[in-house]
Amino acid sequence: MSEKTFPLSKTDLEELVRRYPTPFYLYDERGIRENARALSRAFGIFPGFLEYFAVKALPNPFILKILSGEGFGADCSSYAELLLADMAGIRGEKIMFSSNETPAGEYKAARDAGAVINLDDFTHIEYLERHVGIPELISCRYNPGAAKSGNDIIGKPTEAKYGFTRDQILRAYPLLAEKGARRFGIHTMVASNELFLGYHIETARMLFELAVEIKEKTGLALEFINLGGGVGIPYKIEDQAVDYRELAGGIEDLYRRIIAPAGLGSLRIRLEWGRAITGPHGWLVSTAIHTKSIYREYIGLDSCMADLMRPALYGAYHHITVAGKETAPPAETYDVVGSLCENNDKFAIQRRLPKINPGDFVIIHDAGAHGRAMGFNYNGKLRCGELLLRSDGTVMQIRRPETVEDYFATLDKEAVKNFKGNL
Hints:
By secondary structure, this protein is an alpha/beta fold. The chain folds into two domains: 29-275, TIM Barrel, CATH 3.20.20; 280-408, Lyase, Ornithine Decarboxylase, Chain A, domain 1 (Beta Barrel), CATH 2.40.37. Helices cover 31% and strands 21% of the residues. It is built from 13 helices and 17 strands. The protein has helices at residues 10-19, 29-43, 61-69, 79-87, 104-113, 124-131, 166-178, 197-218, 244-259, 275-278, 310-314, 404-408, 413-418; strands at 24-28, 50-54, 73-76, 95-98, 116-119, 137-142, 183-188, 224-226, 268-271, 282-293, 297-301, 320-322, 332-337, 346-353, 361-364, 385-389, 395-399. Strands 1, 10, 11, 12, 13, 14, 15, 16 and 17 form a nine-stranded mixed sheet that branches. The protein has an eight-stranded parallel beta barrel with strand order 2-3-4-5-6-7-8-9, surrounded by five helices. Strand 3, helix 4 and strand 4 form a beta-alpha-beta unit. Helix 2 packs parallel to helix 9 (244-259) and helix 7 (166-178) packs across helix 8 (197-218). The longest helix has 22 residues, at 197-218.
């Protein structure tokens, strides 16, 4: 079972909203730090262990600085994410650059930053060499195809656009060595938000066996294995969180039985968790502004799917509570919705909740990853800001809400004024 809590009382929240009107994201620094330390303790059994936090999950340099302070690196997939890592003081090989269909300019930026480049396709070897050059340390992303199942969010590996096939992987490393690479890694990402412990242990087995095969067939020893991300969080109360120590122990057992006997005992373990690190420690805080009673009962919020699109995109579940009514029994069945001109702009569908009145604060839980990061401006909606609850109990704004001026900033207003619409 997963307990769903919010770090502020209703009185504290009312005071905060006077300074920062809803909607906003609130992140808990203490919770993020404690979670990061729990991961580091569990996987500290592996020498040289490093977690590359997936920047795409929560691309805010304040959060990245917190995680950098806990010893984390950064997993980046774009030029902007490389810049965010640099702003947070994360540089060099503490950056893993995992992208796909990558423009030459982004490969150059990653090379200039000293990041570990993780190639997504066999043809990118020649492309990288032509535009940037082959670095000494290089990684390749493996797609196991039918050898591994995916899940609903990321899809089946056979249908995924990512990675090298097994045959391509075995041809890639000798070719990279011919072109000057001397240090090698391998990476995979085959699931997203997966809570089954055995799935992740079997992913490690798959990569460990492949590392042995690479050595036997090419004579090249990998320096690291990046097991990717994909570890889920308990979005539902009945979900069970992944036990970090149990997971690390299961992987260690495979390491002893597969890696060490093959003479690869110095092989390092890497992760690129994002959701699991910050997801449970962020909330989207909104105010109920309308009720609607037609064929269903509706609660309209001052936020919308432009602020949190996961429920609309994946049918994802997010637990919802009402400030001050946490212990009140469910009294109504609601669709909790936003104001976007899309009928799938719903945070919850037919959800049993306490009676909600306009003015109530509605808390959407487990929004600390892939929430604000996936926001957009359809309908001219402006993305909300982000607040950080510091470990000392103070709150600071780490990203202001967007303004109308931001929305129009990329337009040349003078050109619009002078433009003649008629031919």
